[in-house]
Amino acid sequence: MNPRLTIVGSLNMDLVIRSARIPRPGETIIGSDFQTIPGGKSANQAVAAARLGADVSMVGCLGSDTFADVLLKNLNVSGVDAAHVHKDKDAATGVALIVVDKKGKNSIIVASGANMFLTETEIEAAENVIAASNVLLLQLEVPLAVVIRAAQIARDYDVPVILNPAPARELPENLFKLVDVLVPNESETALLTGLESGNPAELGPAADILLDMGVGSVVITLGKQGTFLRVQDTGSQLFDAFKIKAVDTIDAGDAFVAGLVVRMGAGYSLAEAIHWGNAAGALAAMRFGAQTSMPNEEEVNQLISGVNPDIIIGREP
């Protein structure tokens, strides 16, 4: 049976320009092409999880504009239940302005718009959906009070809570105590703990701070260096990244989180879920765009079984 996930958070329209490099402050450069692509961390993760075999419900807020209609249609086409995605007549749908250079690196500015109009009342209206889930997945692109309320409801029903604390910000201790698995990247880890780390071997003390705050387990994403896992009383483990040639890293983190959560929801161990998430993130980084590049379950399984990633996505190896 497919795992049931609820994802509470953001939906954006990504306005993406590709260019040879990211411009410096005050500089204007000519890009190569422009696309509008459905995005938002939460929506990205919802679409990715659906492609990876989960039954996904999304809770969020859109404006009442053309972007909102496109984003809702995309969720429906992707197999995501959008019954709890609301429209606010006074807000604009969230947008992200993104520049991607020839090496796949990116620069992003987000105008949150309607995402910040999501309320605790709308979360409580989705209580039955959260209660019936195998996992609740949260991020930080909606009001913090909404994130906390969703986590509280999940805890009431013994539903595991996964928090991807992005974009980075300071968080209250009462939220940490509601989180079963925290999934930050290196910069988010540094902000939350005050500890900078130069290599994976130095991540232990930072992870311990997060565990002491009440988090059940810590999974730190490290890009090309892999993924670091710290579990209370059982030590640490570093998982290697898959070797690929990145085209666009915008969505790799969201694909990783989706793969991790889908596998956890299906009853796999955290270690097995991380390996599967690493494969999903690697494949996503080999395609351009956010939701348009998310891999499916078969592709992830092929990569894990040893198939050349270039063959999986249709390129000459």
What overall geometry do the principal axes of the alpha carbons give? Answer: globular
Uncertain runs with pLDDT below 50, 5 residues or more?
none
Number of strands: 13
Q: Count of helices? A: 12
Classify the beta-strand content into a percent band: 15-25%
Please describe what this structure looks like:
35% of the residues lie in helices and 23% in strands. 47% of the residues are buried. Helix 5 links the parallel strand 8 and strand 9. It has a single domain, classed as UDP-N-acetylmuramoyl-L-alanine:D-glutamate ligase (3-Layer(aba) Sandwich), CATH 3.40.1190.20. It is an alpha/beta fold and 317 residues long.
TL;DR of this structure?
The chain has helices at 41-51, 66-77, 120-125, 127-131, 144-156, 173-176, 186-193, 204-212, 252-265, 270-285, 297-304, 309-312, and strands spanning 4-8, 12-18, 33-39, 55-62, 80-87, 94-100, 106-111, 135-138, 161-163, 181-182, 217-221, 227-231, 235-239. The protein is of the alpha/beta class.
Keywords:
23% strand, nine-stranded mixed beta sheet, single chain, 317 residues, UDP-N-acetylmuramoyl-L-alanine:D-glutamate ligase, four-stranded mixed beta sheet, alpha/beta
Secondary structure topology:
Layout: E1 4-8, E2 12-18, E3 33-39, H1 41-51, E4 55-62, H2 66-77, E5 80-87, E6 94-100, E7 106-111, H3 120-125, H4 127-131, E8 135-138, H5 144-156, E9 161-163, H6 173-176, E10 181-182, H7 186-193, H8 204-212, E11 217-221, E12 227-231, E13 235-239, H9 252-265, H10 270-285, H11 297-304, H12 309-312
Parallel strand pairs: 1-4, 1-8, 2-6, 4-5, 8-9, 9-10, 10-11
Antiparallel strand pairs: 2-3, 6-7, 11-12, 12-13
